[in-house]
Structure prediction request, 279 residues.
Amino acid sequence: MSWGPAIYTGGYVGERTLPSFDPSTPAEPRIYNYLLGGKDNFAVDREVAEKLVSKRRYIGRWQYPAIENRRFLERAVRYLMEQGIRQFIDVGCGLPTEKDNVHQIAHAIDPETRVAYVDYDPEVYVHFRTLLDGVPNTVVIRADARSPKDILDHPDLTALIDLSEPVAILLVALLHHIPDEDDPEGVVACFRDAMAPGSHLVISHMTNDGPPPTSAARFEQAFETVRESMTLRPRDRIRSFFGDLELVEPGLVDGGHWHPDEDETPPSNWLVVGVAKKP
Ligand SMILES: C[S@@+](CC[C@H](N)C(=O)[O-])C[C@H]1O[C@@H](n2cnc3c(N)ncnc32)[C@H](O)[C@@H]1O
Prediction:
């Protein structure tokens, strides 16, 4: 292992200062980890997560959009493998799940598939470093998605991913953590521009078009103490993130309606997803 304690601190890498390890402030990767049934979280994270899933505010844990989102991501990766995609950049990858992380799904089909994970969070970085130790054709990079060039030009990324060949860029449950003042449209455009023809863009995003307005407002407020903000957006705006790429069937839909497995749970109404191809 070649890294030391320095990765637990913040640090200036590229254009932005990256967040430090801080167990006293709720953080999105750990909240999401708890919602998916993981153990890599603290009491402060669980407190926020419980607010999000309380029946009073919500419709029950089993339908919670975190699960709907993760299942979408897994189906999207399988779909892209079927389309012949053999390079993935998973931006805002989150803490690893117990199974079915992107490289695990891809390598079960073709071990030559190259997978780059990206997140700005120090714990995510450490967990992926451990998981990927000795796994060929994988890398994890610590960088801020709001500065896409820091990712696309990162030497560890360019050593693995050939951007002149088709790639899938996954922005799954990421963009709702990028507030308007950080120009999410500009961020996505930079990723779209870097993609070769035949590449795919995968987006999932929490929406305020489905839920009642008071619930949507309360959901955003629940993130006030969290390191990441939460910006729910209407479907039209989420559609616009794809620019002039062509949405594959069934288009922009609820997560549970995108190529559902037979045992898919009904959509939560909070999550909009799509996969688009660059002509
Ligand atoms: C909800 S998790 C999504 C994990 C995974 N993509 C999935 O859908 O299962 C969001 C992740 O985005 C990361 N994130 C949020 N803002 C980011 C930014 N500006 N740059 C890089 N990562 C970011 C968080 O650290 C967190 O791990």
User: Anything to note?
Assistant: The CA atoms of residues 89 and 169 lie 5 Å apart. The radius of gyration is 18 Å.
